Known about the structure:
By secondary structure, the chain is an all-alpha fold. The protein has one domain (about 5-110): Alpha Horseshoe (Serine Threonine Protein Phosphatase 5, Tetratricopeptide repeat), CATH 1.25.40. It contains five helices and no strands.
Amino acid sequence: MKADSFLNPAAALAAFAAAAEAHxxxxxxxxxxxxxxxxxxxxxAVRWLKDQGHTTGLLELLDSPSPGVxxxxxxxxLRRNTPKAEAVLRHVASxxxxxxxxxxxxxxxxxxxxxTL
Length: 117
């Protein structure tokens, strides 16, 4: 999916959320092929949102019922909305499973200055 293929911010946010859920599901079952496809769609949506100046739309996804969506939205918002994004990542990190581990690692790498988004 190309970054210029979104018609509006709502479409990019919907694509981001769907891809984040797909990525989480693929990660949980160990399907790297599907995970990589979902990652490509996530990055395309984020690039479009950044290019259009609409990354603040990701804030609404921090309250998603899906931990995968919250994880990805918080990760993408760390640079702009650090306290809220960190709080969401801490919450996801408290959950058992691979997504909790990823959230914990994301926070660790962010705090160490090794994560750029």
